[in-house]
Amino acid sequence: METRNFNKKLLATYDHLWKGRYRLALKEAKDLFKYFPDNGDASICLSWALLENGYPIKALEFADLAVELEGDETKTKLLRGYILQAF
User: Fold this and answer.
1) What would the pLDDT profile of 48-77 be if each residue is shown by its tens digit?
2) Per-residue DSSP letters for 62-76?
3) Domains in the chain: ranges and CATH
4) Angle at the Cα of 68 (from 66 to 70), degrees rounded to 5?
């Protein structure tokens, strides 16, 4: 999958999350992460999708991975705070 497709799929996945289509978002986020496992933004997206589907521990693991992968620092911190509220 090339970068242009990555951005398109990432935006589509965020759209699913914002509109409450969480199961579809999780499927898309898993696909995204499968093709880009070293991308912090893919990890952040998967983390949010996992959280919304009832997997807060797994979501926190992927949020921590996003930190290691040097994803968007602001998004990562915001998401980690959001996840910690679920506990």
Assistant:
1) 999 999 999 999 999 989 888 876 778 888
2) HHHHHHHTT--HHHH
3) 3-86 (1.25.40.10)
4) 70
